[in-house]
Amino acid sequence: MKKYIWPALLLGLTFCQEKGAPITPVEPTPAPRQIAWQELEYYGFLHFNMNTFSDREWGFGDEKPEQFNPTALDARQWARVASEAGMKGLIITAKHHDGFVLWPSAYTEHSVKNSPWKDGKGDLIKDLSEACKEYGLKFGIYYSPWDRNHPDYGKPEYITYMRNQLTELLTNYGEIFEVWFDGANGGDGYYGGANETRKVDKLTYYKWPEVYELVRELQPNAVMFSDGGPDVRWVGNEHGEAFETNWANLMRDSVYAGMPDYPQKYAPGQENGTHWVPAETNVSIRPGWYYHTYEDHRVRSLANLVDIYYNSIGRNTSLLINFPIDTRGLIHENDEEAILKLGEKIKEDFAVNLVSQAAVSASVERGSDYVAENVQDEDYETYWSVPDGQKSGSLEIDFGKPTVFNRLLIQEYVVLGQRIKAFSLEKEVNGNWEKVTEATTVGHKRILRFPDTEAQKIRVNFLDSKDVPVIAEVGVYHAPKLLLPPTTKRSTSGEVTLNAPDTNLELYYTLDGSNPTKDSQAYTGPIPVTKATTLLASSYDPATDKISDPVRLDLDLPKGTWKAIGDEDAKAIDENTYTYFTSKNGRLTIDLGESVEIQGFSYMPMQARYPSGIITNFEFQVSIDGNSWKTVASGEFSNIVNSPIEQLVRFDPVNAKFIRLKASKTADGNGATFGEVGVLTN
Question: Which residues form the F5/8 type C domain (predicted)?
Fold first, then answer.
């Protein structure tokens, strides 16, 4: 019998070589729950809790259950909007920092069970869970570890309370796809009525390994989110933008929720990270996370939402877009309109994959199981690769005729690990190859945008990889051009300049709050604005008879006659948000030039990738003579570090010739910085 062994073995080896040898995974690799999560790509956040009714971003914990009283709450409306927008799931703020919970928890009275809503018999977590099932959506929960209301926060007893509540959430409401742990921990609060500051060791206090074990036991298919995972990590900002180079790998054991240097050191992931912890991009559809009436007209534009889509899902992250549920208990009409427009635009951009009917070939193939055609079959489980020992290779795509395109989509088969470190796109021009664009990492999905390009043949070059490239899908698309609104700039004298985003466009504007049409005021030069005014401006394309969504500017008094006092710097009143002033004494004093009636102020924090001195707690004073001062507002800018947007603070009308913004506390203890300061007169 031995004489048959070698021929049989040779036949087997030949067969294996023809098909191609199995590919060795590059560690770390994702768990099945992480793969299922990343395939969702796009889902919604719902911020609805006590803050909705106290009109805050972060409640202090002194709120009363009777304040929670939505008039027309409809969880089915939330699920319908998400489904129609193309989202695959919803995550609800079951408990935010103020400690109020949206289910009738047996462990606290600070709950919907003591609110007027449904006469205290409501369970919003149950309602939403059932609505998600009806609309085919996954269901997830947000739970804040910090609790500004609970009397035992900071003590061991609170950890028991937290686990008891998590057990309720994870056992009574069906399957959970994601458990979202916030990184905000410890600080001021009304802990059982005690108005004080309680700090905790964010690394050790919550005993995270035991919390993770509890979630694994009760919801084994759920992923857990926090700054460092353990399953999904934070992208590092709340702007809706992932890093250009973005690894799913992370030095996970070095990370904990709320760590101060996380955005700089860990948010992009690490090429040699020890664990698979892909990023999630979380962003709100409005400036704030919770509903505020004054933000009804500050919903993100379609252009901004499209950028967010490409800068998140297109950069190897999932996208979590937040809806601030209004006091009725509904997704506001403006938010619904915006998110449905995004859904329509994304469908339009990716309607036709030009690769599907093209001829695809490779510089080299691993074997018959790993051929070039696998990247065009729309089956993620098939892929192209190269022989062992090679870390580069190319795919050539022939459309058969000159074809216009402006999008490139690539997916690695990340079940075997993330590999690609650099790639480029070229087009053939008269027998030569010219570069169109290039980038670094790919991961689950990478999408590149570039100007309209025409070619019959293109080539995707995988220039460097941790091991053999493993490419599941390649897509090329021609996305229709999005008509963008004009860009704007205001001078200190109050004049507003509009600039068209493209050639051959006409610009129209209004000053009464209405949306511009081609019958509105045509823009011919700078627009003088000397008082509180709402300006909306749109671009109009006469060739297509289409008009863009408007850009909205809520303008107030011009700053041309204002003066900074003492050693303070005029960069805080120069109408340029990218300049800033650092105060030696933690305050900014401004002479308005004349006495005016004001009803609030605005503060734009320093705008930079690595900002410093952001004011978190403030005092605002006014004066008629510059000597005698009156405090008219004080408090905190909640969540300003993660979301460094313009802060608006309103108060009862008061006359002032001088104003002063003082920093009671900055986020990092450094000198207070002021990007831009203004007043509100309307």
Answer: 343-479, 514-682
